[in-house]
Amino acid sequence: MNRILTIALLCCATLTAHAAPGAHGPNGEHLDAPAATASAVTTLPVIEANTEGFELVGTLHGDELSVLVDRYDTNAPVTTGTLDVELGTIKAQSKLHHDIGDFSFTDPKLLAALRQPGDHALVFTLVTGNDADLMEGKLVVAPGTDGHRHWQFKRVAWFVAALLAVLLLTAIAWRVRARRSIS
């Protein structure tokens, strides 16, 4: 009986262990983002843009637009300078996370506009050292796409799965116990 309860607790711990939204790993990767595999399909809106000097990839999360920038020819990450964005009349400045290496846009007006379904033409202005560049890209937000709601749903799904595992293991334990008492 004790072994079955121990197994049930281990199953619960395994099922519920996952990264919190916005968590970052040691190399700056977003731990709450889906794993990058050939078959993985992201539900979060992504923007890509490049010029001869730089390239960027941005992901719209529930609480930020996170942008990674690197040099086009060497793939060396850009971890200094400033990155601004324009969406129509909305202009926003990013905050550089030196430890992570991403530029984070958290301006409420920008995020509210980007969460609206549709194609959003963005113009990024990068200034780093003696280099400056403009990069244009399009962020496509599908109807019903909301990173924050997506991760809330995932948490609930993990909780329900863990609860079902505990109930199943408890039922098995009771059944084993009942059979032993009959013998």
- Radius of gyration, whole Å: 23 Å
Strand order of the largest sheet: 1-2-3-7-6
**How large is the share of residues in beta strands?**
25-35%
Q: Quickly count the helices.
A: 3
Helix content range of the residues, please?
25-40%
- Overall mean pLDDT stands at 79
Shape: elongated
Q: How does the helix and strand content classify structurally?
A: alpha+beta
Number of strands: 9
The CATH class of the largest domain: Mainly Beta
Number of folding domains? 2
Largest sheet: 5 strands, antiparallel
What oligomeric state do these chains adopt?
single chain
SSE string, helices as H and strands as E: HEEEEEEEHEEH
CA-CA gap between termini: 16 Å
CATH architecture of the largest domain: Sandwich
Per the CATH scheme, the topology name of the largest domain is: Immunoglobulin-like
Poorly predicted residue ranges: none
Protein name: Copper resistance protein CopC
Signal peptide: 1-19
Organism: Cupriavidus campinensis
Transmembrane segments: 156-176
List the helices and strands and how they pair.
Blueprint: H1 2-16, E1 46-50, E2 54-60, E3 65-71, E4 82-87, E5 90-93, E6 95-97, E7 102-105, H2 108-114, E8 118-128, E9 131-141, H3 147-182
Antiparallel strand pairs: 1-2, 2-3, 3-7, 4-5, 4-8, 6-7, 8-9
